[in-house]
Amino acid sequence: GLRERLREAAALSRRYWALLRCRVWPEDCDGDEEARAGPLGWSLPLLGRQYLDILTSWYCSFQDCCRSGDCRISNNLTGLASDLSVRLHGQHLARELVLTAVRGYLEPPQPHKALALSFHGWSGTGKNFVARLLAENLYRDGLRSDCVKVFIATFHFPHPKYVDLYQEQLTSQIRKTQERCPQTLFIFDEAEKLHPGLLEALRSHLEAQAPENHRVESPRTVFLFLSNLGGSVINEAVLNLLMAGWSREDIKLDHLVPQLEAEIAKSTDSGFGQSRLVKENLIDFFVPFLPLEYRHVRLCARDAFLSQELPYTEEALDQIAKMMVYVPKEEQLFSSQGCKSISQRINYFLP
């Protein structure tokens, strides 16, 4: 209720500024007869107008308004590309596919459906990290934005007997968020544990929609599904390619995605693969996250030190990387936990 009152107050404030601008500078009104009515008969010098422009920009930095759109939405694709390149380790396929998919969705003026990306791989390989990078670069407040909602299957929808209630709550939250924001991001963690009824409730939001008015810009919605489903298939395929002499960076989507999709579709212990989201091809891209190697774990350890502004040594990075368990037993190639728990392990090396 408080948020609604604040939005109403912001709307009144925006209207006040529009009236002020139009009465001082009628040429800015663009046909707003109400605002143009009753000219004050005076004008400010150019310097005064510049000050008002600065004040308006300052006001918009605290409100959900901007002449260019909604100030909560940043869509910093350059920053996203940089973050995926510098901060995400060992995931060249995810980096390229996510950036291409998001850029291709945001640039056209009339999206005909929501963008649905499904991230798959072992725990600790970067699925949640990429979701956070997307939120941080697409929205001013990142995951805290009013336009972003995160759902964890076992936390938000823990009891199957309440699935009807969960369906109503989920549908209501999606609708309200879309009404509040012209561009929304919904993240579903542990997607393989979502009840089939909840997956069915999402279907209508992922289907193609015919715009009611082609002159009105369609709202944009991005759905992210994060899952461990298919992780073992990805790891096995990567291991076979490495053992055959392939370089990790030469691995292509074609080497992994067909096997990943087949594994998801035949999965019987998860409703995700059997859902109409998958069967009706409503997921736009299945994004494989590769298992991480020793060198990637070192980089994660370095980033953990840097994020806390702590000094580190190359020896400390090696020791942290060696603390992880590597599989398979013979080859010892992949960290079984990826980079998970790295930030906690650096505490052992603090003075």
From TrEMBL:
<dbReference type="InterPro" id="IPR010448">
    <property type="entry name" value="Torsin"/>
</dbReference>
<dbReference type="GO" id="GO:0016887">
    <property type="term" value="F:ATP hydrolysis activity"/>
</dbReference>
<dbReference type="InterPro" id="IPR049337">
    <property type="entry name" value="TOR1A_C"/>
</dbReference>
<keyword id="KW-0256">Endoplasmic reticulum</keyword>
<dbReference type="GO" id="GO:0005635">
    <property type="term" value="C:nuclear envelope"/>
</dbReference>
<dbReference type="GO" id="GO:0005524">
    <property type="term" value="F:ATP binding"/>
</dbReference>
<dbReference type="InterPro" id="IPR001270">
    <property type="entry name" value="ClpA/B"/>
</dbReference>
<dbReference type="GO" id="GO:0005788">
    <property type="term" value="C:endoplasmic reticulum lumen"/>
</dbReference>
<keyword id="KW-0732">Signal</keyword>
<keyword id="KW-0963">Cytoplasm</keyword>
<keyword id="KW-0547">Nucleotide-binding</keyword>
<keyword id="KW-0067">ATP-binding</keyword>
<keyword id="KW-0325">Glycoprotein</keyword>
<dbReference type="Pfam" id="PF06309">
    <property type="entry name" value="Torsin"/>
</dbReference>
<dbReference type="InterPro" id="IPR027417">
    <property type="entry name" value="P-loop_NTPase"/>
</dbReference>
<protein>
    <recommendedName>
        <fullName>Torsin-3A</fullName>
    </recommendedName>
</protein>
<dbReference type="Pfam" id="PF21376">
    <property type="entry name" value="TOR1A_C"/>
</dbReference>
<feature type="domain" description="Torsin-1A C-terminal">
    <location>
        <begin position="292"/>
        <end position="349"/>
    </location>
</feature>
<comment type="similarity">
    <text>Belongs to the ClpA/ClpB family. Torsin subfamily.</text>
</comment>
